[in-house]
Automatic annotation (TrEMBL):
Residues 3-242 form the PPM-type phosphatase domain. GO terms for molecular function: protein serine/threonine phosphatase activity. PANTHER family: PROTEIN PHOSPHATASE (PTHR47992). This is Stp1/IreP family PP2C-type Ser/Thr phosphatase. It comes from the Bacteria.
Amino acid sequence: MNLWGITDIGSVREQNQDDYYIEQVEPDLGLAIVCDGMGGARAGNIASQLAVQTFLETAKSSPPQEWRAEPEALLHSAAQQANTAVYTMAGREPECRGMGTTMVAALVVGQNAYILNIGDSRCYLVQPDGIRRLTRDHSVVEDLVTRGKITPEQARQHPQKNLITRALGAEAQLRADLYRQALSPGDALLLCSDGLSNVVTEQEVLYEVLHGGPAEDCCRRLLDIALLRGAPDNVTAVLLQM
């Protein structure tokens, strides 16, 4: 397993409100998290950092054997505690009112990945024969695509592409999706914020991951593509190679 992550403020934003975390806990046990904060001024930054911090504190209160035994329960419990922390601070601190964050987290246990997401940060599965998005965006444009109102290509340019319908910390109870994906040697998982997925195509991701060598080099090249295209948002990419 090879893990790497990178984040950048981009070319337009005044602050990086993304946050991420990666750790190879044991040779066949890995964790990756990407959060993209929202809210005024500093609030988005606070939301994403608080979500990652609380998630980790909750997860690490359990030993690795519990991660292996109940991976989905661990992901949901850690994300729920993160949701509570962000929701509570948003209600208590006037400057944080309305803040929230997306979250996509992947826990790899042996040859299986367990993925949780809320919002529009994504997880892609990259294999030698193609790329597939494993998560579903909780967003206005994703709902339009699902109903056949617009195409995925139109969604990339839609004026409401940044409007999400769910966020961690927006409600007292977490409403996240959980997925399970079997992995094989040579597979890779890419977790990213919409600052990457809005400007870098799936085919470009596929090419860079398959031909880019180590995870560090792949992430840096994906960031470079986003920056060359103006990077109107913060950009975060985490790559896990099996």
